[in-house]
What we know:
By secondary structure, chain A is an all-beta fold. Helix content of chain A is 0%, strand content 50%. Chain A has no helices and eleven strands. In chain A, the strands form two sheets. In chain A, strands 2, 4, 5, 6, 9, 10 and 11 form a seven-stranded mixed β-sheet that branches. Chain A binds chain B through residues 35, 37, 44-47, 50, 59-62, 95, 97, 100, 105-109, 111-114, and chain B through 1, 31, 33, 35, 37, 42-45, 48-49, 54, 84, 86, 88, 90, 94-101.
Amino acid sequence: QVQLVQSGAEVKKPGASVKVSCKASGYTFTDYYIHWVRQAPGQGLEWMGWINPNSGGTNSAQNFQGRVTMTRDTSISTAYMELSRLTSDDTAVYYCARDLIAARPVCSAYWGQGTLVTVSS
Amino acid sequence: SYVLTQPPSVSVAPGKTARITCGGNNIGSKSVHWYKQKPGQAPVLVIYYDADRPSGIPERFSGSNSGNTATLTISGVEAGDEADYYCQVWDGRSDHLFGGGTKLTVL
Lengths: 121, 107
C-alpha cells in the first residue's frame, strides 16, 4: 500500500531554515509527482509546490518562490522540502502528498502524516 | 491572481443533502478537486476532475462544475461527514490553489 512517512517535528528560530523529508513506499517513486502543502494553526490548506521525482523538476507557488527548495533522492525514495528565512508566519503543519495521476501534477491522493514546524525565538 | 471562494460554513441535518460551493472566475473551464479534512488528520481526496470519485469514496459524494461555480454534493449526510472541505484548482499558470475551506456541521 502507498505510504508517505515524514520526518519529525521541528522548532526553529526566526531567520533559520527547515528541511522536511518524506519517504515513500508501496509504489514506484519516480512515477508520481509529490506535492507539498502546509496548514497554519486553525487555518486552511496552502499549496506550496510540487516536484517531479523522475526528472527533479520543480514548480513552487508564487508566494514561496525564492524561499522554498524541493529535492529528491531516488535511491531512497525520499522527497525533501526546505524552507528558508523562516518567520513566525511559517509555523504550520507541513504535508507531503503523492499525486493521483501518474506522470502529471493533478491532485493529491495520498498524504503523509504531517510535520509540525514551529518558528519561535 | 486567481481566487477561490467557499462559504465558511454549511449546516445540514442527518439524511439530508449538503451542497458546498466553490466560486471562481470561469471555474467551469478548470478541473476542480475536493478534499475532506477532519480535525488533527491529513486531508482526504473525495472528488477529482470535477466529478470523479477515488476508490473507497462512497457514491454519496458527487461533484459538478459549470460557469463560475463548482459544487460538492453529499447525499444522505452522516455524522461522519462532519469535517472541513476544500476545493482545489490549477490556476492555469503555476499554482494549485485551495479555496478557504468550508466547515460542514451535521445537526
